[in-house]
Amino acid sequence: MATYESVQFRGSPSGEIIQKTITYRDTDLAPDEVVVKVILSGLCFTDIHMMTNDMVLGHEGVGIVQAIGPACKIVKVGDRVGWGCPNSSCGSCEICLLGEDSYCPNAEWYGRSNSDTGSLSTIAKRKEQWLFKIPDEISSEDAAPLMCGGASVWAPIVSNCKCFDRVGIIGIGGLGHLAIQFLRKMGCAVIVFSRDASKESEAFSLGATEFHCVKDVKNYADLKLSKPIDKMLISTSVKIPFEEFYPVMNVKSAVIPLTVALGDLVAPYTQTVWTGMSITGSSLSPRYEQQKMLEFTARNDIHVMSEKFPMTVEGVNAAFDKLKSGKMRYRGILCWEN
Predict the structure, then answer these.
(1) How far is Cα 229 from Cα 251, in angstroms, rounded to an integer?
(2) Where are the extended beta strands (E) located within 32-183?
(3) pLDDT per residue over 84-130, tens digit each?
(4) What secondary structure does DSSP assign to 218-283, as a single string?
(5) Which residue range or ranges hold the Alcohol dehydrogenase-like N-terminal domain (predicted)?
(6) Which helix or strand (DSSP H or E) is residue 193 part of?
């Protein structure tokens, strides 16, 4: 019988990060469960929302498989795997049967179910179903943020954007810098809108075809774009008034918010209806699409811009504080070996 000691970093009702150690035994594994030794974990703003819950934080994990249950068929001991928010989906509801298993109403999800499966730990016990083998061409530092941030961006892109579209991105950050790379490698024209003029050279280095600073701009028509926008991805955490950018939207275009905020989403009613526009919500990629995202990333030399922190109480707190401050460029990585 093998035992695995897991050092965990958990939230608490006060919001303080608590370090705790528990022990797993391989005899405790369910037939479809896997023990993973965590190499590192990405940090996402969802983790900020979970800080007041008594649970292991982190949901962008990468690690090495240590043990598998008898029913596991996808991964084997020694594989490098990653995972995001879902731990399992039922596989039998209408949504799963349609191939949209990331929307499964019966899914086990980070923050909603098992409180011990987070990636800010030395050992994670996960269902095999939502583990992804990481291609050799992708580093662990790049792979971790793709598990949630990448999957959140990839899903609406492959569902809505064609290679000949002019795609706007509002905000260069944890999601936006990945969206620029995905879209450019797909052949899209990528038009970046940012309130920070200093990000212009960075946007072009990532693959943008146009950059427009929108600080103090209340009507994007003032930017005098050469052509309208077919798809607009909103990747900023700041709620943008839709009437500001609606003047540059094409007929039959789509607006796709990638971030969430409290309150109502308000859009110009008449233009939305008369020009056949759509406003499309999106969550994570289904499993099939997420595996294809990893293959696409490996094939196209896409990389994550990140900052590394040690996986210690001090390092976790420092990473959380920097993310909350809005100064992270652009994804936080917590490593057992910094």
Answers:
(1) 9
(2) 33-43, 60-68, 80-83, 86-88, 108-109, 123-127, 132-133, 166-170
(3) 999 999 999 999 999 999 999 999 999 998 899 999 999 999 999 99
(4) S-GGGG--SS-EEEEEE--SSPPPHHHHGGGEEEEEEEEE-S--SS-----HHHHHHTT-EE----
(5) 31-136
(6) strand 189-194
Beta carbons of 34 and 131 less than 8 angstroms apart? yes
Q: Which residues fall within 8 angstroms of residue 299, CB to CB, at 6 or more apart?
A: 137
Residue 307, both tokens: 């900052």
Beta strands 166-170 and 229-234, pairing class: parallel
Question: Domain end: 279, 298, 324, which one?
Answer: 279
First to last CA, the chain: 31
Q: Model pTM?
A: 0.96
Neighbours of 32 (CB within 10 A): 17
Structure tokens at 199: 């990000």
Q: SS3 for 326?
A: coil
Alpha carbon distance 279, 272 (integer Å):
9
Q: 21 with 63: CB under 8 angstroms?
A: no
Are 207 and 143 part of one and the same domain? no
For residues 166 and 143, membership in a common domain is answered with: no
Q: What is the largest CA-CA distance in the chain?
A: 69
CATH number at residue 61: 3.90.180.10
